[in-house]
Design a protein that fits this description.
Layout (H helix, E strand, L loop, with lengths): L8 H12 L9 H9 L8 E5 L5 H6 L5 E6 L2 H11 L3 E9 L2 E8 L12 E5 L12 E7 L8 H8 L3 E11 L17 E3 L2 E3 L1 H8 L3 E16 L2 E14 L1
Parallel strand pairs: 1-2, 1-6, 2-5, 6-7
Antiparallel strand pairs: 3-4, 7-11, 8-9, 10-11
Length: 244
């Protein structure tokens, strides 16, 4: 049995809808909105790494502004689906309405204005905490809803800046939902008390992202539809860092 929830068909379809489906309750598409917020910070940039790219929407959005993209996710199923979307004008997926009842949806990159630059992207399966040494020299590293799903996020934080060019930009989005099913509590970056002091993730990032200046933070909402009557409404904090 596969214990990775991100390899299940239900999760794949939910993420397709999250990335490419309708907007709900007036909340903008998360991937598209995140890149829109970033636009003032990514001028004259050439090469980008999208870590935790899932089924690829942020990668396709970034391809409209960059010449070269490497997009990596731990889930092989997510990467295979992102490649399928990349190589198709449109694909179909099902979302749950209620119980076993489904509704068919379509992803069409042309309608989303994401088709013309799709071949700039190289989609790869990989572990964000154990990247190949060749994965380096980026002008932007974009990490969306990633760090609180890593087994060893501190290892990631301590090493990621080495893969950025000087004056490169690191973007971390996370709702900081630390859970022991993903990250041993000893490895949490925040969300606990130590010596009678509350430890928050953003402060841990400030203390451990060496050679990086925090430029700006934003709150970015997102909604994931599970069924016709059940939704997840979450707020992710975007922190934007510049490599000195």
């Amino acid at each position: 049995m596969n214990n990775n929830i991100y390899e299940t068909n239900k999760s794949l379809c939910e993420y397709c809808d999250f990335h490419y489906g309708d907007e709900y309750f007036g909340v903008k598409n998360f991937a598209k909105n995140s890149i829109e917020i970033l636009k003032p910070f990514i001028k004259n940039r050439n090469r980008v790494l999208d870590l935790g790219c899932a089924v690829g929407r942020s990668s396709f959005e970034l391809a409209n502004y960059f010449n070269e993209l490497v997009a990596i996710d731990y889930s092989n199923s997510f990467i295979n689906l992102a490649k399928k979307i990349q190589n198709s004008i449109s694909i179909k997926y099902d979302i749950t309405i209620e119980g076993d009842l489904k509704e068919q949806k379509i992803i069409n990159l042309e309608e989303l204005d994401l088709y013309k630059n799709r071949n700039k992207i190289e989609f790869l399966q990989g572990d964000a905490t154990n990247l190949d040494s060749k994965i380096k020299n980026f002008d932007l590293i974009f990490c969306s809803n990633l760090i609180d799903r890593l087994n060893n996020p501190m290892n990631f934080i301590e090493n990621i800046s080495s893969r950025l060019n000087k004056n490169g930009v690191l973007v971390i989005l996370s709702p900081y939902t630390w859970l022991e099913e993903y990250t041993n509590k000893n490895n949490w970056l925040g969300g606990y008390e130590k010596n009678n002091k509350e430890i928050f993730t953003i402060d841990t990032l400030k203390n451990n992202l060496v050679s990086m200046d925090l430029i700006k933070t934003y709150d970015v909402e997102f909604v994931i539809k599970e069924t016709k009557r059940k939704f997840q409404h979450t707020i992710s904090q975007m922190s934007i860092w510049n490599k000195i």
